[in-house]
Structures are given as C-alpha cells and as structure tokens.
Design brief:
By secondary structure, the chain is α/β, with parallel strands linked by helices. The protein has helices at 3-10, 14-18, 34-42, 62-65, 86-93, 108-116, 142-148, 196-205, 221-229, 245-252, 277-283, 294-297, 300-303, 340-349, 408-417, 421-434, and strands at residues 26-29, 50-54, 77-81, 98-100, 120-125, 133-135, 152-157, 170-172, 176-181, 214-217, 237-243, 268-273, 289-291, 309-314, 317-319, 324-325, 354-358, 362-364, 370-372, 374-375, 393-396, 399-402. The chain has two domains: 3-181, Glutaconate Coenzyme A-transferase, CATH 3.40.1080; 196-434, Glutaconate Coenzyme A-transferase.
C-alpha cells in the first residue's frame, strides 16, 4: 500500500483506536493525547488492571483531572509517573493511587524498554509528512524506545502539535497500529515573572557565566531569572534537557547562537520542549534546534565533551555536609530527580564546566516564621538527589558557596556564609557540636 493508503486504513475514531488496548497490560504515554485519554476513560469498565505510565507528570488540566486522575478511574487504571506534581499530590490525597517510578533522565529510555515494557504507547503527534513520518509530541522521546521494544503505537494526530527537528522522536505510518485526528490544545507552561528574591539569587552567579558558555537551565524562577540576566552575553550555546520560553527569547535575540560550541556547533540541542504557544511555534520546523534522544542529551559523558558547560538547577534544601535534596523533604513525594544529577556530573567533568544549585536561603510559613533551607542535616526521610562529592556551587541570595574539592570543614563554613544571617550563629553552634568546624 502507498503511504496515503496506509494513512486512510489506520484512521479511525478515538474510541475505535483505544478499543485495541487489552486489560492486564501496560501503556506508556506522553504529550497528553487527551482524546485517547477520554475514550479510554469512557471504556474504563472493561478494565480492572491497566497500567498507565508517564514521564513528566499528569497535568492539572480539567480534562486530565476528570479522567485518569479522577476517583472514578480507581480500580480500572493504575498510574505511575517519573515525576509528581501538585495536581497529582491532590489526587493522591483524595485516594487516587499513583506510583513513583524514579530514574535519571539519562536512563529513561532504558527504563521504559526494560522495566515498564509497555504493550502500547499512546502518542500525541504532529501531522504526517510527505515521507510518512509523524513527530511524536513535545515531551521526552521514550515513546520511541517503547516502539522499538515492541509496543503498539496508537496516536492522536494534532495539527497544532509542533514538528520537531529530531533524529529520534518520530514514527512512520507503517509502525502505527491506529490513530485518530483531533486538534486539542496542548498544555501551556507560561513563565511566572521572577520575584525580587529570585533575581537576587540569579545576580549572584551571572558574573560567573562568561561569553561563549554553553548553558542548561532547569525549571523554576531562578533559572528563568538567570536567562533574563543573560541577555547581554554573547555567543552562548545551548545543550539542555528541556527547551523553555527563556531559551526562545535568547535565541531570538541572538544571544544563543552556538558559535563556540565544541559539540554540535551552530545548533541548539534539547531533549524536549515545554512552554507557551509562541514557544511551540518557534521550535516547529526550526532547523537551528535539534531534539535528540534524552539518554544521549543527558548522558554525563556527552555533557563532559562540551567546553565551558554551565548547568543551573534548583533544590529544596542543603545540609552542612553539602548533600542536596531536590525531590522531597521528609517522607512525602514531591517531584523527581529529572536530569539534575546528569548535568551536575557532566558539567563537573567538562573542561571549564560549572554546575550551580540555586535556592533561597529560607522558606517562610504563612504565619511569618522562617525556616533555614541550609541545615545541619536534612530532615528525616529526605532524599539526597545530588551527593556532596558532586556538588560544585550552592547559590543563595547571600552569595555562592564553592564546595568542589573542599574539606568537610570548608564546605560547612562556605554554606554557613550563604545562609540567612538570622541562622548563621545557630548553624555554627550545631556544626561545632557535630565536629564539622
């Protein structure tokens, strides 16, 4: 059959597409093909144990909250995710069971192929090109790993989905089991304007990012503020897991031109994209951005090949030994490791590389009391996301603590110096009592 004949033969309604999915199997999904989710939810009574996994959390959009995350889905679909967001926490507090399947992003394709082993993959795709290929959504391309491992692909084809320039995250019509057509709105991820506090933190590290650096910016207000401060830099490069609105702005202004990169010069490298409609339009068919396999993008050995690599990520807390918690404080589930550790370790190995972990020095409760985010030890049950021996720099609004190749005493003193002044004396007393200083 010709490409167009295959297209016509596999096109069907959302209900007909998901009717192929058998109970007691597993499904991997990405980029939220909501028409397929709704159709699956409407057929939920035929399922008693269908496992559905996603990477970047199920969103807070009503269409997701009212289907997969709703109490009515309990007993029909079991869910797991590599990251947990606030909307999912709310659903969990109401009795919705969601498992947290954690992995470094550099291992995500391997995890999907070897541990999840999905029988099906639900794909949100751009329209087919003249050669019969679809671009598989805007989130990490582990769906490709699932297909390569034998999963049957069921797609929602959306004309508003950007066509990514990718050598990995795409699918041919001959590989598709079935698909429906529907132009539902993609999840929008707007940036909140950085607060004055976030700007103060960003200001502490901006002078340490020279012209010609290759940047990775994580999620959150401080990395966004750093991006805004970088508007006066020249010849920056980009190698990042997630392409964001801030990166769009820097590329449009010519700040990011990748002219000095040692790996893929002239091209921005990313694993996936999250942003607004304007950012999705910017990346669509943009040959200056290459979306590659996340396991390669985030591989520390890949990152180590990039001279002057600068990685900037946020965290929740740090203890005086330099251990970083970015996922949860205590025993609750909050987020996921994502690619932080991948870039911390890769940037450390790179020639001229730097890795910054950024955070505000305190958290303020509703009644106005403050809690230091730098403490003697992390709260009981907290997860160590980045080990102390890998941390290079910790930045707060009070400065930058350089921890690389320092003694335990030097690490503790450096961290105390960037803690909120209100807590420095008590931290010093605790550190002396523990024999750290």
């Amino acid at each position: 059959m010709t490409i167009q004949e295959q297209y016509e033969a596999k096109r069907c309604s959302p209900e007909e597409a998901v009717a192929r999915i058998k109970d007691h199997t597993s499904v991997f999904t990405g980029s939220e093909p909501v028409l397929l989710f709704e159709a699956l939810f409407n057929q939920r009574n035929k399922y008693s144990d269908l496992h559905i996994h996603t990477m970047l959390a199920f969103s807070n959009r009503p269409v997701i909250q009212n289907t997969l995350l709703s109490p009515q889905a309990e007993g029909h679909f079991t869910l797991s995710s590599s990251t947990i967001n606030k909307g999912m926490q709310v659903a969990m507090s109401k009795g919705r069971r969601i498992d947290h399947l954690v992995s470094h992003f550099s291992n995500i394709e391997e995890m999907v192929a070897r541990q999840i082993k999905p029988a099906y993959v639900l794909v949100h795709a751009s329209p087919m090109d003249k050669e019969g290929y679809f671009s598989m959504g805007i989130v990490p391309g582990a769906g490709r790993a699932a297909i390569d491992a034998g999963a049957k692909a069921i797609m929602q084809v959306n004309r508003t989905m950007p066509v990514l320039n990718t050598d990995y995250n795409r699918i041919h019509i001959s590989e598709a089991e079935a698909f429906c057509e529907g132009d539902t709105e993609m999840q929008q991820v707007p940036d909140k304007p950085p607060t004055e506090m976030e700007k103060k933190i960003a200001a502490q590290i901006i002078d340490r990012i020279p012209d010609g650096s290759v940047i990775q910016l994580g999620a959150g207000g401080v990395p966004l503020a750093v991006g805004l401060f970088l508007e006066n830099r020249k010849d920056l490069g980009l190698h990042t897991e997630v392409f964001t609105n801030a990166m769009k702005i820097l590329m449009e202004k010519g700040v990011i031109n990748n002219s000095r990169k040692t790996l893929y010069p002239g091209v921005s490298i990313a694993g996936f994209v999250q942003g607004t409609e304007e950012t999705y339009s910017f990346v669509s068919n943009n040959r200056n951005i290459l979306f590659r396999k996340l396991g390669w993008v985030n591989d520390p050995n890949t990152i180590a090949q990039i001279d002057n690599m600068v990685s900037i990520n946020g965290c929740l807390a740090v203890d005086l030994r330099g251990q970083v918690c970015s996922e949860c404080l205590g025993t609750g589930t909050f987020a996921g490791i994502g690619g932080q550790f991948d870039f911390v370790r890769g940037a450390r190995k790179a020639r001229g590389g730097k890795s910054f972990i950024v955070m505000r020095s305190v958290v303020e409760k509703e009644e106005g009391t403050r809690i230091s985010k730098i403490s003697l030890t992390l709260p009981e049950g907290s997860i160590v996301s980045t080990p102390r021996n890998d941390v290079m720099y910790i930045a707060t609004e009070y400065g930058v603590a350089e921890l690389i190749n320092r003694t335990a005493k030097e690490k503790a003193l450096a961290l105390i110096s960037v803690a909120h002044p209100e807590f420095r004396e008590e931290l010093s007393r605790q550190a002396r009592g523990m024999g750290l200083i």
